[in-house]
Amino acid sequence: MKLIKQKQNCSGCSACASICPNHCITMKEDKEGFLYPFIDDTQCINCGKCKSRCPVFQQRKVQRKPKAFAAYSKHDSVREASSSGGLFTELAQQVLQSGGAVFGASFDDCFHVVHTYVQNTQDLNKLRGSKYVQSSIGDAYAETEALLKEGRKVYFSGTPCQISGLKTYLEKDYENLVCQDLICHGTPSPKVWRNYVRFREDTAQSSAHKISFRNKTQGWQKFSLLFQFINGTEYRQTLDCDSYLHLFLSNVCLRPSCSNCAFKGLDRQSDITLADFWGVNQMMPSMFDDKGTSLVIVNTDKGKKLFDSISDSVIVKPVDFNQAIQYNPAIGQSVEASPKRESFFTDLEKEPFEEVLKKYGSDSFSTKIKRKTKGAIKQTLSSLGMLDKVKQWVHR
Question: If you count DSSP H runs as helices and E runs as strands, how many of each does the chain have, helices first?
């Protein structure tokens, strides 16, 4: 039996499977590769806990007065290894150094993305960096609860739907829990990611030993997807040239619920929200050097306390909240569903993956022309000293 009949209503947060006292709910992949809860009717005792802890059925309402900051780590090595300004690392290290644990998304040995936790700074690198794939929660909620009940401090990083899933699972607020979410574009299919990893390894004729979604060799704003292979070769392409990133940013491989996300908005369940501070070069040029700047949104007093505790390790400047989110509209807006989404997943079932990439993983000729034209206009405005004024007018 299905718990939620309409797939667009399920984020795959796994709160229902985690809370089931009889372990009769399992998260199973559908044909698109997304996890959904299925109930074994023969084991179900009709306790109703699955629905009472579902963040879609039981949406928690909060009122926040968020404050925004531009920030980046003072430690160049941390910043270089991070997707943006290294704030996740600095915050997480503070918790670990006080004897706490940190949860986040990590690659397993097969480069599947799973939620796990670390208890020392040496292992923190597993959780660092963006993973543009929906992670499997597994036992992370139950493990979090166990650590909290031991009195340990826990820093839990995840998507807004995962944070909401954790909060409804726990059903109570813990003073020793700090939740950090992110400004989420949407979650791509793990099945598509697995196919892409296999495609890259077949092309290289070697297994991958390292993958980074946000390599900064060409700068923070023009980040690259990087594969390094055991045979010594590597694949590196910027966001405008890589096929997988194109699938992600064109929305064809995102979860159905992402186009009508129940967890968008300014009143967030998390204590802290982290994101790339896109637009910082226009708003606050002194905080921009193309090495990565984080947008930090402090939502609660608990979040403020942790953020203040790392003041010696970061460069920070306050910023007008409303102005900052103009450049980061995904904080409150769901992505538009791609008109090609249905045909993409149909072709994924029937055609070789390489053909699917050729068809959906690159721009059409007309789109390339539009992009080049846009680039030429931007270059001309910049040379005339008018680019900043035009951008300010556009974002009014």
Answer: 15, 13
Give the CATH fold of the 7-52 domain.
Answer: Alpha-Beta Plaits (3.30.70)
Check: CB of residue 184 under 8 Å from CB of residue 159. Answer: yes
- Please list the residues that pair with 382 across neighbouring strands: none
Contact call for residues 243 and 195 (beta carbons, < 8 A): no
Reported as a single tens digit per residue, the pLDDT across 292-331 is 999 999 999 999 999 999 999 999 999 999 999 888 999 9
Instruction: Tell the residue number behind the tokens 């820093």, with chain if given.
Output: 155
In contact, 78 and 93? CB cutoff 8 Å: no
* DSSP-assigned letters across all residues of 119-176: SSGGGGGGT-S---SPPB-TTHHHHHHHHHHTT--EEEE--HHHHHHHHHHH-S--TT
314-317 long-range contacts (CB < 8 A, ≥24 apart) are 314/71, 314/72, 314/73, 314/74, 314/85, 314/86, 314/87, 314/90, 315/71, 315/72, 315/73, 315/74, 315/287, 316/69, 316/70, 316/71, 317/69, 317/70, 317/71, 317/284, 317/286, 317/287
First to last CA, the chain: 49
Q: Could you say which DSSP state residue 21 is in? A: T
Burial 55-81 (b: 16+ CB within 10 A, else e): bbeeeeeeebebbbbbbbbebeebbeb
Cβ pair 93, 120 in contact under 8 A: no
According to DSSP, the residues that pair with 237 across neighbouring strands are 225
Domain boundaries, the chain: 7-52, 60-362
Supply the Cα-derived Rg of the chain in whole angstroms.
21
Give the per-residue pLDDT at 59. 79
Higher pLDDT, 104 or 327: 104
Least Cα distance to 134 among 184, 82, 201 occurs for 184
Query: How far is Cα 147 from Cα 150, in angstroms, rounded to an integer?
Result: 5
Percentages helix, strand, coil for the chain (3-state, rounded to 5) are 40, 20, 40
How many angstroms separate the CA atoms of 201 and 189, rounded?
Answer: 19
Give me the chain's average pLDDT, please.
Answer: 91
| Full-model pTM | 0.90
- Is 192 within 8 Å of 253 (Cβ atoms)? yes
